[in-house]
Design a protein that fits this description.
- It is built from 6 helices and 9 strands; from the N terminus they run H-H-E-H-E-H-E-E-H-E-E-E-H-E-E.
- The chain is of the alpha/beta class and 216 residues long.
- The protein has a 7-stranded mixed sheet, sandwiched between helices.
- A hairpin with a 2-residue loop joins strand 6 and strand 7.
- The model has no long low-confidence stretch (mean pLDDT 94).
- Pfam families: Methyltransf_25 (PF13649).
- This is Class I SAM-dependent methyltransferase.
- It is an enzyme of class 2 (transferase).
Length: 216
């Protein structure tokens, strides 16, 4: 089956920037106390539920994967970019990382206790997000939780420069209400949301949504 163009261009872009992305974004979470709070709450909820491991989907070089591991979660990473996975494995050899697409993951139904998709839906055309959310729902165990972060807005951007490299891919700024509605349509219950203004080195407001797959 032919791969959608957006997956190909996204993979190529992140293969190109992988090494410099890992270096330049390494301390980004240190400047984001509200996001750290959401991640800590997510970890506490998932640990209490005890439904299985957590997948960091769109893990990049693994900086969030290791952060979740240090919060006491059994965590592994999945990313579309083979170069990102290579960097993650070299940096965190004690953790598991696999190459794969969030549109069709090599995971069993209900295998996961949690999913983190940290700015990893931003290259998916909004009309195709239901496919992604259906895959999240399929792989989460009943009672499992999903945490997502993304830039707020309602537009498509053409990315041609990133982390010191020329690239060519699209990125989408997304309305939180739309994402919440799409999650509801996929069978999730949105339980918490964080929206904040743009911070240092950011151009747009940011959002995090926490959602749960009902037990029934």
């Amino acid at each position: 089956m032919t791969e959608p163009d957006y997956l190909t261009t996204t993979r190529t872009a992140y293969d190109t920037v992988a090494v410099d992305y890992a270096r330049l974004a390494a301390a980004e979470l240190d400047m984001r106390p509200l996001e750290r709070g959401m991640l800590a709450a997510f970890a506490e909820i998932v640990r209490a539920a005890g439904n299985g491991p957590v997948a960091d989907i769109g893990c990049g070089p693994g900086r969030l994967t290791v952060y979740l591991d240090r919060l006491g979660l059994s965590t592994f990473g999945i990313d579309l970019s083979s170069k990102m996975i290579e960097v993650a494995r070299q940096t965190y050899p004690n953790l598991r990382f696999s190459e794969g697409s969030m549109t069709e993951m090599d995971l069993e139904d209900g295998e996961l206790g949690g999913i983190v998709a940290w700015y990893s839906i931003i290259h998916t055309p909004p009309e195709l997000l239901p496919v992604v959310f259906a895959e999240f729902h399929r792989t989460l165990a009943p009672g499992g939780h999903l945490l997502m972060a993304f830039q707020v807005g309602n537009e498509r951007l053409r990315v041609e420069q990133a982390y010191g490299h020329e690239v060519s891919c699209d990125a989408y700024r997304l309305p939180p209400d739309l994402i919440a509605e799409l999650l509801n349509q996929a069978g999730f219950v949105v339980s918490a949301r964080l929206e904040r203004e743009a911070g240092e080195r950011e151009r747009t407001p940011q959002a995090c949504l926490l959602a749960r797959k009902p037990e029934r």
